[in-house]
Design a protein that fits this description.
Order of helices and strands: EHEHEHHEEEEEEHEEEEEEHEEHEEHH
Helix content: 25-40%
Number of helices: 9
Mean pLDDT: 89
Length: 391
């Protein structure tokens, strides 16, 4: 009987992503993603892993130039040369349709492996599983030839009826069902189906933030993207080291996060009432300066009449000190606390109408509308007072 098995679980690498939302930083982020992929390979080598599991979307699309595929295969070859097996399933971006990158390129052949090798395998509907006798391990891939699955990938599956191996691991690229949230997703399965699968471990892809849990005796996990694909994925940046071990007749599945990505995320809320002006806000933000940080800054609280902040100017001034900086103004303008002009005057009627609209918006929890109305009231008061206003 083999000893403890060690698996590295990754997914959603999205090599070749265009990142149109990142502008001139798109190329840099593509290189960060490839660096995270290389770090994953380094980790598998350092941990002397038995298998690298890739649970879908290794590539961002099926349209990949040969040089990009060769670059990825060169990394995988480092593993196969070290007798570490690689198991890949297509995802929803590199879907196994007629135009699949896995039909266009034979990854195993590109890695210099013979046709009958099981060291680098892409699981497909035609080849749904591989059994590694020396490891006493069966790996099952639940793959469809279309992006939208015609049924649950786990429908009718039960590893307990498969006596070919002691350990059973599955790979799915899809969504664990959450009523009202995943109903329209392309590939959906339920916790009940996970429990009924009797898999020891289910390696999941598609969600870019790390999550894990257990259904029945089956441990499942989303490893998340090894390097964030979008700027709001604050639980990305890791791969999972999975250990399978049996002690005194009891099976143990261990899951540990290992960081491979560089990009980090943080959020900063600044009370507008504590700011003397825009330079003070800039000074507060630059304390967090880090070229690997995506920082989301939001002004909150109540803004005094004399506070004039341009979030666009702040971003332009210090954006180069971060990987990505976003500054938003969510502070509310102060309501007038002095006596109002008579209601039969233009000023009095305007202020009263705006205050009534603000009260209605806040009562109906229309937050954005309330902020806009408060700002309009602030500007109106300043102009009626004869003060200079910058729009």
């Amino acid at each position: 009987m083999p000893g403890m098995l060690r698996l590295i679980h990754t997914a959603d690498v999205h090599l070749g992503a265009r990142h149109t939302d990142l502008g001139n930083q798109a190329a840099a982020q593509r290189e960060r993603q490839f660096a995270a992929f290389r770090a994953t390979v380094d980790l598998a080598l350092a941990e002397k892993a038995d298998v690298l599991l890739v649970a879908g979307d290794l590539f961002d699309s099926n349209t990949q130039p040969r040089r990009s595929v060769e670059r990825a295969v060169a990394e995988l070859k480092r593993l196969t040369d070290a007798a570490i097996r690689v198991m890949i399933i297509p995802g929803t971006h590199d879907v196994y349709d007629r135009a699949s990158v896995y039909r266009a390129y034979d990854l195993a052949a590109m890695a210099g492996l013979p046709a009958d090798s099981d060291r680098l395998v892409v699981l497909t509907p035609e080849r749904p599983d591989v059994v590694y006798g020396i490891l006493d391990l069966a790996i099952h891939g639940f793959v469809f030839p279309t992006k939208r699955a015609p049924r649950s990938p786990l429908a009718g599956f039960d590893a307990a009826s498969d006596g070919r191996a002691r350990w059973h691991v599955g790979l799915i690229h899809g969504s664990l069902a959450i009523p009202g949230k995943t109903d329209a997703d392309e590939v959906v399965f339920t916790s009940g189906e996970v429990a009924a699968s009797h898999l020891d471990y289910l390696a999941l892809g598609h969600w870019h933030s790390t999550q894990r849990g257990k259904a029945g005796a089956t441990s499942w996990a989303y490893c998340g993207a090894p390097e964030p694909v979008a700027v709001d994925q604050d639980r990305a940046g890791v791969v999972l080291l999975v250990t399978l071990d049996e002690r005194s007749g009891v099976r143990h599945v261990g899951v540990e996060e290992r960081r491979v990505g560089r990009t980090r995320f943080d959020r900063l809320e600044v009370d507008a009432g504590t700011l003397a002006g825009q330079p003070a806000l800039v000074e507060r933000i630059v304390r967090f300066a880090d070229p690997d940080l995506v920082l989301d800054v939001r002004l909150i609280g109540v803004r005094g009449d004399d506070l004039d902040v341009s979030t666009d100017e702040v971003e332009r001034e210090i954006a180069d000190r971060f990987f990505r900086l976003r500054v938003r103004d969510g502070a509310a303008a102060a309501l007038p606390d002095g006596p109002l002009a008579p209601p039969d005057t233009i000023a009095g009627a305007l202020v009263r109408d705006l205050r009534a609209s603000i009260a209605e918006a806040e009562a109906k929890e229309r937050h954005d509308e309330s902020l806009e109305l408060r700002d309009a009231l602030r500007l109106a008061r300043l102009m009626l007072d004869g003060r200079e206003v910058t729009l």
